[in-house]
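Before the break, one more example. Copy the sequence into your notebook; we will annotate it together after we see the structure.
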Amino acid sequence: MPSDLTAVIAASARWLLAAYQPPTGALSRALAEAQARQATALAASLCYPTSVDVQLLHLLAPSGSHRLDWLTGCEPHEDDTDSAWRTWVDETVVSWAACLLADPALATRAHQALATTEHHTETGSLQRLTHPSALDGEAAALLRHPDLLEGIAVLHRPQLLQRLEVQGAVLS
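Here is what the structure looks like once it is written out:
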């Protein structure tokens, strides 16, 4: 049984990039994708902290993107033949990633909490997520905009805050 989160991370990051598109240009796309992947990797690692949790995820399957698509109006095109990836989108991971993208301080706290998971060595550098440069901010202006992300972030923010043991945190 698979014990990694690669499919969920990739699909959830792809969904975020489709819903909150970066400006045109290869560099902007690459920087936004790096931030989305870092956020979803951190969120997935916190959401499914043990190998048993990951195996249960694979057994029961992620939630898919249907509700997220409906909430954001980001419906897939009818002629889109490559939509199987949408079944690997996990609503909780996307919601937590939105929280982390909107608030670098919360992302830093989440990065510290990563040490309590079995995935603490798997996420790699999270520099673009926790300490975004001005260029990172420009490339992911929509992807990091707290007001735009709020509809998704609010879905599972209480569970993230509970996981991080942050009481009354306000995302800025």
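The chain is about 60% helix and 0% strand. The chain has one domain: 6-164. Try to locate both features in your own notes.
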